[in-house]
Amino acid sequence: MIECEDRRKNCRTKANTTTDLKGLMCILVDLNEREAYTWIRRRIRRLWSGWIKAIFSLEKKQDLTRRVRKKILLYLGFAANKTGWNFVEGQLKGMGGLSRKKCRLSLEINTEIYINILIKSPEVNAPCQNLHQLPIDILYIDIVGLKQFKEFVKDGYPKFRLFLSIQCLVRVLDSFGTEPEFNSAMYSNVRKLVSPWTGLDLDTQQFFTFFPHSPDNSFMGFVAEQRQQLGQPIEKKDIALVYGKRPEFFQNRRPYLELISKFFEIHTTVPYGGPFIPSFVKNHGLLSGHELHKLLRAAKVFVGLGFPYEGPAPLEAIAEGAIFINPKYDPPRNRDNVGALHDKPTRRGLTSQHPYAEQFIGEPYVYTVNIYSFNDIVEALKKIKQITQFKPYIPYEYTEEGMLQRVNAYVENQNFCLFQRQPSKWPPAETVTFILGQNGMSCKDVCSLKDLICERSYFREINSIDAFKHHNVSCSGDYGIPDILVPAYDVFTSNCVLQNDELLYSCVGGHLNFRRLCPCRTYIKGQSALCKGCDK
After folding, report:
1. Mapping DSSP to helix (H, G, I), strand (E, B) and coil, where does residue 294 land?
2. 20 to 30 Å CA-CA from 236: which of 50, 339, 500, 515?
């Protein structure tokens, strides 16, 4: 379905939904020697029936007929080989879940050749660039790939101009999240917050995370794989499966595991053995996806060891009816007290191995315990032992339908190109409320107290003296600074402090001197990325 025939009018093709898997698989079939792509192919096949059910279900709830087909480029830096970069390039129809599209993909594109083609494109070299005429509408790239890309284009004026042209089209897949103070090159350098992942100078909502860590970023998520109908009991054995990818994860965990072994037979799936794995733990070695999920369906308990942080495995275990024992951290772990987090571009503190499971799921599916406390562990194990029915559970935002709904909303509505702002702002203004917080509180906490979520894209709407006057605040004076704590009211000087660097608008900063003025939006329970009404 074409909107018009005249190319001079920037005609765009309407997006259509497809359930064709064969076309996608034939593109990936030539990559048998690449382990990363083999895993992708297998997972797509396993989940395909779920994607099809999800799209048909979503079409009954939303009008998906008005969407324009987007040209989307996907680059996976983690899968790049040593001699070149490997692109998965596609013109994707329909919604944002990449495996749900009818795609025309071209793989193993040499980066230098590809960039040279773009540089020679008349649209790129035109004095006044129109991004609607560029070869892509959106570039999805992981944070490793973004660093590679910036290093590649930094030399030479044409390449540098190309990156500036498409920077607002970038969507960075960033599992841990990036906060504004680390994203701003100027601010992070002044504060000596230097790591491989700082100073990228994007709008921080261009970073897409695994979990809804911070409202400064966009929550992309993933689909928690499950083979059983949600809510239906599963027959289980007295098995506890340990979440440990490598032998060293078991170090200093013997007393904890010995206590669990008094209640359950302990299994694990470490690819190779080691001195830290107790002899009473049955190690199955590396399993295929099918075999692993079969073991998860048999297990009553999925045992966290405290590391790795925030992985997808606990959600997939819960989706197979297993109960997750989630190690608690006191004090919370962050970049200042744990070496593994030192380079992460965030000050977020982890209160447990899996904060999402702790905060958004909880009992009876998740027991967050101090694994060094005999009483805490025994109490949790006794509760689990009393459970007679083990039912699969997945939060809606981690189902196929939930992800399709969320990504579709992003693809259709998010726009980070300042000179191409859409007439209607997203999220809609009627879903946003402005609140003056108490001193010392971050906007994330100010909004949370009202059961709302901080909406970073609306900070510019309240970065003015008039906004403070509207909240009955009389400012003795005003000044602008580049800092994550503003706009805010300084309670000691009675000044209104405004933001003069938009990259530093932040939901997470707080200081006792300041009462922050915060934009807060509504959200859908189980789909926190979307405001109420944003799912239509």
Report:
1. helix
2. 50
pLDDT value for 357: 97
Residues 6+ apart with CB under 8 A from 472: none
Asked if 194 and 338 touch (Cβ cutoff 8 Å), the reply is: no
Residues in the chain, how many?
536
Q: Who contacts 301 (Cβ-Cβ below 8 Å, separation ≥6)?
A: 239, 240, 241, 260, 264, 322, 323, 324, 325, 384
Q: H or E segment at 187?
A: helix 185-190
Q: Is the pLDDT of residue 7 over 50?
A: no
Number of neighbours of residue 114 by Cβ within 10 angstroms: 17
Model pTM score: 0.88
Determine the topology of domain 239-393 in CATH: Rossmann fold (3.40.50)
237-252 pLDDT, tens digit per residue, is 999 999 998 999 999 9
User: pLDDT tens digits for 449-488?
Assistant: 999 999 999 999 999 999 999 999 999 999 999 999 999 9
Spans of all domains in the chain: 14-173, 239-393, 421-521
First-residue to last-residue Cα distance in the chain: 22
